[in-house]
Amino acid sequence: MKQIYFFSEGNKDMRDLLGGKGANLAEMTRLNLPVPTGFTITTEACHSYQQNSHQLSEALQLEIDHALDRLSSSTGKKFNDKFDPLLISVRSGAAISMPGMMDTILNIGLNDDSVIALAKNNDRFAYDSYRRLLAMFGNVVYGISEEIFDNVLSETKEINNYQSDLELTTADLKNIVTKFKQIYQDVAGKDFPQDPKKQLLSAVDSVFSSWDNNRARVYRRQNNIPETLGTAVNIQTMVFGNSGEDSGTGVAFTRNPATGTKNLFGEYLLNAQGEDVVSGVRTPESITTLQESMPEIYDQFAKIAEKLEAHYRDMQDLEFTIEHKKLYLLQARAGKRTPGAAVKIAVDLVNEGLIDKNTAIKRIDPESISVMLHSEFAQKALEQHILATGLPASPGAASGQVYFTAETAKNAHDKEHQKVILLRQDTSPEDIEGMVVSEAIVTSRGGMTSHAAVVARGMGSTGVVGAHALQVDYANKTATIEDCVINEGDWISVDGTSGHLYLGQLETTDAIINDDLATLLDWAKEISHMGVYTNADTPEDFKRALKFDADGIGLTRTEHMFFKPKRLLQMRRLILAKNAKGRIDPLEKILLLQENDFYELYKLSAGKSVTVRLLDPPLHEFLPHDDKEIELVAKEINTTKDALKARIDSLKELNPMLGHRGDRLAVTYPDIYQMQVTAIVNAVIRLNQEGFDIKPHIMIPLTNSKTEMKWVRDVVVETIDKILTNKNTTLEYKIGTMMEMPRACVTADKIAEVSDFFSFGTNDLTQLTFGYSRDDVGSFMPEYIAQKILPNDPFQSVDIEGVGELMRMAVNGGRNTNPELPIGVCGEVGGDPKSIQFFEKIGISYVSCSPFRIPVARIAAAQAAL
Ligand code: ADP
Ligand code: MG
Ligand code: MG
């Protein structure tokens, strides 16, 4: 098995084998771009390493020897050479990019001898490189905390009153090197290995095992990256951005990763190496200044950036280094971006002819769209005093309580259910768990490509970085700006679009859909087969859903209309009435109220279909429960407290969810459904007389059989016919059923004979298929998921194997009887992208979800159709 590929032997399609970094280094080499020579040890070698009880096999070591010989002959440099020693970097890189999660070591090959060779030309640079190697190697291979090395640097700077690393002299650096070597002795009890070959093998070993470090695991869990991938290792000749003021290092995006705007966006530092730019030790310069300081390099880089973007047909995130005015590329990858930038870039790339609409849709994570619909701060709120301003690293508007460490933030979030904001000088990969739970991430240092900025954008959370006015004091848990002190737990508001920070909780406004998203959603609509409807109980819900371009209403739950106080009283009178006669008056009163509700709702429909479900919940939900309330209601309905209590008791059920509800109420109290149908039809007739053309859809809940459906349908039809005859008019309408009982799914072919449409109520269907009370799952569901007895909560993403099979059976049965039968899904999972994939497969005609989920479902439906 070949375990090593030179960059010249690979290409971009070999990600699985070479990892993303390796595959792209190979691709850039193939494109004749200036990439320092090197080779990649494959992910297969990583698997062998894992199976070989975490040891590098002889075979691999032999292959590494050969590869090193080849590297030497192509670069003319050798390990330990007295004049021109070979120095390399050892870089991790999995198939799916995990920025900063695993380890990289630079300057391997330096030791007490070769540092002298390197120092001949430039001694400061040689010792700067050596101290970097010692710190990285010590941290990655021997697990010595970075802080210990950092402290030595800070002390030296403090004693000499230096502001930046750049002021460290050769003498300082030599001193630091000596101290670092002492740390090896004191902390790890081992020497720094002087043999370059040994350094290399230990580094490879550590990169392979860094796959299993804690922060990498958390990141994989967070991003659904399979544990089995493993990482490749890239060995690459060093180029030196720290070799003087005509050298430097930087990162750049071909488009703005926060907004998507098309222009080169990035940062660099002169006389610096590797991580200096992202780690925030020095605040980098914007790449636009490179245009002035090194115009030829800037132009060359800009051209390469454009070429790579066109080649990959996507926004690229590039790493580059300049060594004595010569440009090198060190990494290219698809750039992480905010959900908003993702949408803008996808739409722009289509308009620029680089990708087609289908590709644009496929690139969007449907779930991330919901982040774009988050609110903004209200204009009025923004007139507040601005506490501080940083760089707008990741857009959004968030308020929360401040914590200064990832750990305290996570605790406050997990245990106290607080909305938290992580406020730090800067962040590092160790902070990942705290960042995940934060509403916003704020740092006082670092630039737009700092760790905090990249991670915030990647997660779609709000981010402001480099707010220099903030003095963050970890020891006292405070952040100070002039005379204002923010303590742990204080509320602040963060505007990631402007970079402003405010004290307290700011008011927010409703979300809007911007032009790019609207365009993308239009394309999604063209592409998808399934319609996307909304669940809406009120005109307000419906209006919001129409703004999000809902195709209509898939579910109106009429019971929600009864919970306003005046109506609740009538509803209670209705329920508590002893007989049909007693129900007449409350029914008449409710009828008028309901008719107006439906009138308002239908009036908004503008040709889109509206499906109203008749009363569904058990009646006891409308009744008073505690003593005080019972007394009040007794007064309201003119009876005694005891009489009322007795009546309530008589209505109590042991299992109300399985009891007297849904169409079972229609069988025992047909007058309730008659009233609701009358309200619907009266409202529609009124509107149609005003010039509308509405064809109401009426939905019967909880149906179990054809006979039952037919019985209820007859009641509904009779009611409608009576009204139409009375008013001497006509009306087109449809009467359909919820599919939420397993029995109904099994007998769907028969039910379809008397049903004009089906709509799956996946909440009840899941509850009844599993036998889980959906109101009580909280006590055991988390453990079922933790123990992997269930892959996920079936109330959030459909259980394809069980519930899904019943649905498939019902679809097939229904369509056997009526090939044109419209079949929708209106349960919670109707807005879940993974479930939507499945619904497309079994031939569902539409999904219905809450207004805010509509754009998510629309993109998911299009992806399902592709
Ligand atoms: P990460 O995945 O964390 O970005 P990298 O392997 O890309 O880790 O490397 C970390 C830093 O070191 C980057 O800034 C990269 O450009 C720099 N680097 C890596 N290899 C070399 C090299 N051969 N010469 C100069 N700089 C390098
Ligand atoms: Mg990198
Ligand atoms: Mg139901």
UniProtKB/TrEMBL annotation:
Substrate binds at R557, R613, E740, G761, T762, N763, D764. Gene3D superfamilies: 1.20.80.30, ATP-grasp fold, A domain, ATP-grasp fold, B domain, Phosphoenolpyruvate-binding domains, Phosphohistidine domain, Pyruvate Phosphate Dikinase, domain 2. Mg(2+) binds at E740, D764. Keywords: ATP-binding, Kinase, Magnesium, Metal-binding, Nucleotide-binding, Pyruvate, Transferase. Residues 418-499 form the PEP-utilising enzyme mobile domain. It comes from the Bacteria. Coiled coil: none annotated. Its cofactor is Mg(2+). Residues 516-864 form the PEP-utilising enzyme C-terminal domain. It holds the Pfam family PEP-utilizers. It is an enzyme of class 2 (transferase). Residues 16-53, 54-293, 299-347 form the Pyruvate phosphate dikinase AMP/ATP-binding domain. Its EC number is 2.7.9.1. GO terms for molecular function: ATP binding; kinase activity; metal ion binding; pyruvate, phosphate dikinase activity. The active site is at H451 (tele-phosphohistidine intermediate), C826 (proton donor). The keyword DNA-binding does not apply. InterPro entries: ATP_grasp_subdomain_1 (IPR013815), PEP-util_enz_mobile_dom (IPR008279), PEP_util_AS (IPR018274), PEP_util_C (IPR000121), PEP_util_CS (IPR023151), Phosphohistidine_dom_sf (IPR036637), PPDK_AMP/ATP-bd (IPR002192), Pyruvate_phosphate_dikinase (IPR010121). PANTHER family: PHOSPHOENOLPYRUVATE DIKINASE-RELATED, PYRUVATE, PHOSPHATE DIKINASE 1, CHLOROPLASTIC. Belongs to the PEP-utilizing enzyme family. This is Pyruvate, phosphate dikinase.
